[in-house]
Write a structure and sequence with these properties.
globular
Length: about 190
């Protein structure tokens, strides 16, 4: 949290995965030193405490972090029962690239519908291409591709409304016809 008034914020972090073992590991809230970038020392010291060679999420934050099993491709989104609705920030980096294109597009739009009116959906560089294919316009925010729910009118028209159906992606361009290949006559030495 970087804002000066961050102490007055109500913060709840939700993490999902389909792998129960990964969820259990994340819920333990313990991280090795390689989980932090060298420039994040102040962040680490504020929100984590040393526990041997590992770092544990500090007690005041443990109750604000929740993990649950959820399949982004087939599970409900938005999902009010799990607070997956009106989110201020959604991080979905290096996930959608493993989906088939149609599934990635559908999931991306479902995640976008989970945002608050002024929310941000941050994608990785690979997902930026998927967003463009889905007809969503965003902008670069550091190493993230940011999609804003309250995008300016010229971008919002590409998003549609929260209840709009997805536009079909443009068909791939037809390949140029290949020239016919004729056998080259063999050259015989004279």
């Amino acid at each position: 949290l970087l804002a000066e008034d961050a102490e007055s914020w109500t913060v709840e972090l939700l993490g999902t995965d389909v792998n129960r073992a990964f969820l259990a590991r994340a819920a333990a809230g313990r991280y090795g030193k390689t989980a932090f970038r060298q420039t994040e020392v102040a962040f680490r010291d504020r929100y984590f405490e040393a526990e041997g060679a590992r770092w544990r999420v500090r007690a005041p934050w443990q109750d604000r972090v929740h993990f649950f099993e959820h399949n982004l491709a087939t599970g409900p989104l938005p999902w009010p029962e799990q607070n997956l609705i009106a989110c201020d920030l959604i991080l979905c980096r290096t996930v959608l690239m493993y989906f088939v294109p149609e599934q990635a597009t559908t999931t991306l739009m479902r995640l976008w519908r989970c945002l608050a009116e002024d929310g941000l959906l941050l994608l990785g560089a690979v997902e930026a291409g998927l967003a463009a294919q889905a007809g969503l316009a965003g902008s670069w925010l550091a190493s993230n591709y940011a999609l804003r729910r309250d995008a300016p009118a010229q971008e919002r028209s590409r998003f549609g409304t929260a209840t709009a159906t997805l536009a079909q992606p443009a068909p791939p361009p037809r390949p140029a016809p290949r020239p016919s290949l004729r056998p080259v006559p063999a050259m015989l030495p004279s």
